[in-house]
Design brief:
mainly alpha
Length: about 200
Amino acid sequence: MSEERQGSTRRSSGPRKAQEIFDAALELLAEKGYEGLTIEGVAQRSGVNKTTIYRWWPSKGALLGAALLGARRLDLAPPDTGSLQRDLEALLHTITTLLTTPPASGIAVSVLGAATHSTELAAHVQDFFADRLAREQPVFTRAVARGELPADTDPMLLVDLLAGAAWVRVVLRRLPLDEDFVPRAVRTVLEGARGTG
């Protein structure tokens, strides 16, 4: 089923039912991991017939991909504080909250872990990150217009540096985040390690 068809079916099936399905899928993922996630389990938890779910999303990878893009709990409104430093701090704060607050933390870790074993899910995760970067683009467009960034800045690189720092610190090193982690990380990326002392 094409992404366009899935997008139209999400809208036509009604936001209430779609959100119930997405929430159930994400909750089960956080609880049981990708291997333990089943369409039957999502149907039972959401109260939606499994044949209805299969009609719109023929596999758990497709369903999870739709949930990543369509779930309200993972929605992102790009910040507009008037300052690139503060906008990036808000974005990084959103990422650190995601990585440290259940059930979102379990969802994030389960999705990325499972994506290394499932090419179908990996494609949906790529779509998710592409969607996020597109939503974050206005932050960088405004920063260029204000003269805070050169026009040839690579927004993906900046986001990857910041998000990567959070992932390594929280998920891989399993260290707590200091109170000043977010502003310090943003300042280091924007100014360069040499300039931060």
